[in-house]
Amino acid sequence: MQKIKVKNNRLINFSRKKDIEKAERVRKLIVEVINDEHFRTEILKADFKDRRYIDENRNTTEIKNNEIILQKIISGKEQYTGENEDFEWDLRITLYRSLTSEIGHRSRETIFTKKKKFRSMSERYIASHWIHEYMHVIGFTHDYKKTNIRPYSVPYLIGTIASNTLETKEYDFIT
User: Fold this and answer.
1) Is residue 63 situated within a structural domain?
2) What is the tens place of the pLDDT at every residue in 21-43?
3) How far is CA 175 from CA 26, 124, 131, 140, in A?
4) Domain contains 39
5) Is pLDDT of 145 > 70?
């Protein structure tokens, strides 16, 4: 099994020491879940109803094989960075303030998370959110309006699988 590394490559607006420490615990959770055999098996068995993938040239394709979806996740190739496969997720996270109800979003290779949500939600929840957004960073997409297939898109279903995997285990580094 190919082991994936995860780096908090860039943390912007993490103004408190507690925020940086929490980001590190979230990073550790992400390492645990994406290297978990059960997590990977669940991806291979998943019933993705939206498999759209957008490459760096903005060409959209549908990836029909779950093994290819898993390989893209494992490869750690972030789009728009000029990187090749390196089996390392480079997380670029920015905390921001907003009055919207969303937890966050992604723009190119950066994941944006609302500061208030980051501080109030559990490490497990934030880890699932960052995994969902990272699926966008590597090229997967979904409908942006609520539809019947959106929960079964690669970003949403991977986030759900991650959340379910995280809930089944205890981690000594989580408070």
Assistant:
1) yes
2) 999 999 999 999 999 999 999 99
3) 11, 11, 21, 32
4) yes
5) yes
Selection from 136, 140, 157 nearest residue 91 by Cα: 136
Residue 174 falls within a domain, yes or no?
A: no
Question: What are the C-alpha distances in Å from 148 to residues 28, 57, 142, 145?
Answer: 33, 28, 11, 10
Range of the domain at 39: 5-167
10, β-bridge pairs = 92
The pTM of the full predicted model, rounded to 2 decimals, is 0.95
Q: Please name the residues in contact with 130: beta carbons below 8 A apart, sequence gap of 6 or more.
A: 26, 30, 91, 93, 111, 113
How far apart are alpha carbons 27 and 105 in whole angstroms? 18
pLDDT at position 175 is 62
The 88-96 sheet, strands edge to edge:
5-12, 88-96, 110-114, 104-107
Residue 33: strand, helix, or coil:
helix
Q: How many domains does the chain have?
A: 1
Percent of the chain at pLDDT > 90 equals 83
Rounded-to-integer distance, Cα 2 and Cα 63, Å: 21
Cα–Cα distance, 46 to 62 (Å, whole number): 15
Decide if 175 is inside a domain.
Answer: no
